[in-house]
Amino acid sequence: MTSSRWRIRRHAWIAILDSILLVAFLALSQPGDSTGYQVHEWIGVSFIVLFILHVWASWSWITMTWRRARSGTGPRARLNFLLNSALCVMMVVVITSGLVISQYVLPAVGIRTDDSQRWEQLHNFTSSLLLGVIGLHVALNWSWIKGAIRRYCVAPVQRLTNRAGAGS
Which pTM value belongs to this model? Predict the structure, then answer.
């Protein structure tokens, strides 16, 4: 497979993964209302795997952003790096605190958890802040998101539609 083809497939994979992450995060944001706490925890465990895959798949972009932020190429690069660093730290805090207060998933596999209200408060507070930071993350990368939607969702459908129209 050529390098450009691999790059396109990798970007498509990242766009799909990011979309799934966003939907999962939104489902996780109101556990009592949308999913219930047991489903919330299982989605949360799945989210951990998706988050790790996201960081792994985006690693070249992460290192490029780090280099740009260090080289002083402009305030947008530094802001992007700081925002993503905060996002990563907050995600680790939310995941860790969520596992510590788990009432279903970890006890189901025999791991004791802590029902301390401080851990729950940390989890809820950081989750609330995370919603705003993810909003900023999406806003800052909106042009990439629009391009990815056009390239990986709209264009393939148009190609299929054109082929179907040409075959009739």
Answer: 0.76
